[in-house]
User: Fold this.
Amino acid sequence: MKARKKHYWGITVATWLVLLVVWQLVTSLKITPEILLPSPEKVISTFINLSKYGYNGIPLWYHFMITMVRLLSAVVLAIITAVPLGLISGRIRIIYSMFDSIIQFIRPIPPLAYYTLLILWVGIGETSKVVLLYLAAFAPIYLACISGVQKVNDDYIKSAESLGATPRQVFFHVIFPSALPDIFTGIRTAVGMAYTTVVAAEMVAATYGIGWMIINASKYLKSDVMFVGIIILGITGVALDQFLKVIERKIVFWSGKS
Amino acid sequence: MEKIIEVKDLTLTYPGADKSTLDALNLDINRGEIMTVIGKSGCGKSTLLNTIAGYLQPTSGEVLLNGEPITGPNWKLGVVFQNNALYPWLNVSDNIGFGLKMRHFDKSKIESRVSTLLDQVQLADKKDDYVFSLSGGMRQRVAIARALANQPQVVMFDESFGALDEFTRNDIHNVVLDLWKSLHLTFFIITHDIDEAIKLGNRIAIMTPDKGIPIKVIDNPYFNIDSAKIDAEYMKYKNDILEQIV
Assistant:
């Protein structure tokens, strides 16, 4: 069994402390104007104010929740569709030939390039935002599933067949669990991809959401609000990834041990 | 002796290859025997096993089980792989009972058969452990128990003991021989280790396609020999086999 690599938490904490001290020094010594880089105290007080009074008349928690709902609906939709399609594509070459080139074509296109088209096609409401995030999340899961299926140990399949498993049973009892570690890697990447697209999704025709809050604050040079939004997104992103890692360790407990 | 497997004029050429891996090979495996197969690397030992197991379809010729053509893998032909191919997401009991579950056996029947097999391979205390926490020898015992759970008619071993250290290998040899004695099954064992072939085989099949002899089966007077009884005659027998192979 592989020993888990040691993490020097002290060094991590010290690095963050150094960054905070440098930030504090730069702002205290007024090396940069406050409008470009607000002080840590200003950001904290803005956060407290936003928590109490909200932004633009909408509570901060609502901005946060709406962003999370958009993000998670898109990721859940991507999981529901990309996992089966990726698993089948990995196993059946005809299906792979049908879908892979389309997904490879869409994958590298920056979401903003087709966002306006999406708005024209599905409307200016929530749907276009969720679809944009969904498209960002789909490819990583789909590709990870294909890779997971193609990596399945051939002897796993042969031994299942020799033990009396039907092709359907081989798929559900052998290929699917074998591919699970890759599926989880794909989901984590997808959440990251959707997360990086969330600000873009809330740029157009939104009136709430953390991404929208950042964009709106930038128009009025409210850098303290922008910092609050960015820090919320950063912390939530790390928390989501850690949450997925915990679930991954519970479900795919054998990963890296076989 | 009653034949359980008949290999008739078996030729197998891999797609794109200009030479056949197996060329007009004939072989009979008797019910209840242990046949070991030995030959140089690349002589087609594993190809032969894969064809008998139904993983490969012959280019020409046929393989029969109880007189019926083998058209694909099935539970009557158990296979133990070199890397054991156990499922790391299942514990020891679930790995052993996997085939029975796929064949929709009752839960109580599965539990009872798994429990018997756990006793036979001396792993009753490991039944709830995951396979990645077991040693190589223990994993191979689980793989053997899993192949036996379906009560197959033939159990095939594809260089299944090659990755084990000598002490563990001897231990597994004894487990295999004990199971063979108690279950009266037919074992077909591919190996590259000549001592293993002599210890485990009632008969030894020697594959030397490079000398124009696809396979030759000889009787083995030293089957299950006690290492203390190894003498000059044994060494001569072993050298004779080696000379045929090299």
Notes: Strands of chain B lie at 3-12, 22-30, 34-39, 60-65, 68-69, 77-80, 154-158, 186-190, 203-208, 213-219. Residues 77-151 of chain B form one domain.
